[in-house]
Amino acid sequence: MDHSLEWWYIMLCLSLPVTCEYNHVLFSQSNSNEGLNSSQTLLSPGSFSLPQCAALCTEQPCCLGYLYNRDSRQCILQLRMSPRGDHSSSTVFLPDDHGLRRFRKASGCAASWIKYQDHCYYLGEKKVNWTDAKRECEERCSHLVEIGDQEESDWLASTFLFKNTCPISLFDDCTAWTGGSDVDIEGQYRWSYSNVPITFTAWNEGEPSVGLPTEAEEKDCLELFRNGKWNDRYCFYLDTFICEISLE
C-alpha cells in the first residue's frame, strides 16, 4: 500500500461512524468494551500503521477484530478462542486505555468459506485421517461439521462433494469427514465438538456396519457421501473434511 492510500485509510477509519475495508475484509469501529476482557488478545510486538494492523487481522484465522493506538502505533488482535482453547502465541489482557480504537470484523464468512443459514463451512483441500481433520478445523478456529437435518446434509454434499465442486485432486473419491463418531462407546454416535448424541441420521443403505460386528468395532468415524448419505469408516482412512463455524 503506498503512503497516499495508507493515509486515506487511516483518516477514513478514524472517523465515526465508519466501515473500513482491507483486503476484501470489512471492519467497523466500535466503542464497546463488551467481551474484550473475556476474549483472548494477542499483542503484536513492534510499531504498526493502521492498515498494517488490519492486515495482521486478516492473516490470522482466529481474529475477530483489532485494537489500535495511533500514538504508540500499538496493534492488538482480538482472537476467537479455538475449540481446543489454545494459541501458540502469548496473550495479554488490556487495561482501560482510552487511546485504543477498536475495530471488529463485519459478520460474514471469510474467504474460501461458504455461508449456509447462520454458519460458515469450509472444505479441506487435502486428505487426512479423522483425528488430523479435527485438528485442521481447530486450527481454523472451527470444528468438524455437525449435521442437523437432511436438508443440511444434502446441501453440504451438493455444495462440496459433486465432481464439479470437489477439488481436482479428490475427484476419484470425493467424500468428507464429519464430526460424528462412536469412538467412546460402540454403536453410540456423538458429535465430537458439541459432545451430544446424534439424533438425526442419514445412513446410506447398509450403514452403519452393524451387520459386520468385526468391522463395526473398528469403523468408528462418520463420513459424508456425495449423495448426502452417511457412512462409518476406519478413522485412519485418508479423507477430505468439512469444517463448520457459527457466525457471531
Q: Supply the helix-strand structural class.
A: alpha+beta
SSE succession: HEEEHEEEEEHEHEEHEEE
**Can you count the beta strands?**
14
Largest sheet: 8 strands, mixed
Mean pLDDT: 79
Morphology call = elongated
Which spans have pLDDT < 50 for at least 5 consecutive residues? 7-12, 14-19, 87-93
Rg to the nearest angstrom?
21 Å
Count of runs of 4 or more consecutive helical residues: 5
Terminal Cα separation, in Å?
A: 30 Å
Strand content: 25-35%
Description:
19% of the residues lie in helices and 27% in strands. It has 248 residues and is of the alpha+beta class. Strands 7, 8, 9, 10, 11, 12, 13 and 14 form an eight-stranded mixed sheet that branches. The longest helix is centred in the middle third of the chain and has 12 residues, at 150-161.
Brief digest:
The chain has 248 residues and is an alpha+beta fold. It is 19% helix and 27% strand.
Helix-strand blueprint:
Layout lengths: L2 H11 L5 E4 L2 E6 L9 E5 L5 H10 L3 E7 L4 E6 L21 E5 L8 E3 L2 E5 L6 H10 L3 E2 L5 H12 L14 E6 L8 E2 L21 H4 L4 E4 L5 E4 L6 E7 L2
Parallel strand pairs: 10-14
Antiparallel strand pairs: 1-2, 2-6, 3-5, 4-5, 4-6, 7-8, 8-14, 9-14, 10-11, 10-12, 12-13
Offer a few descriptive terms.
single chain; 248 residues; alpha+beta; six-stranded antiparallel β-sheet
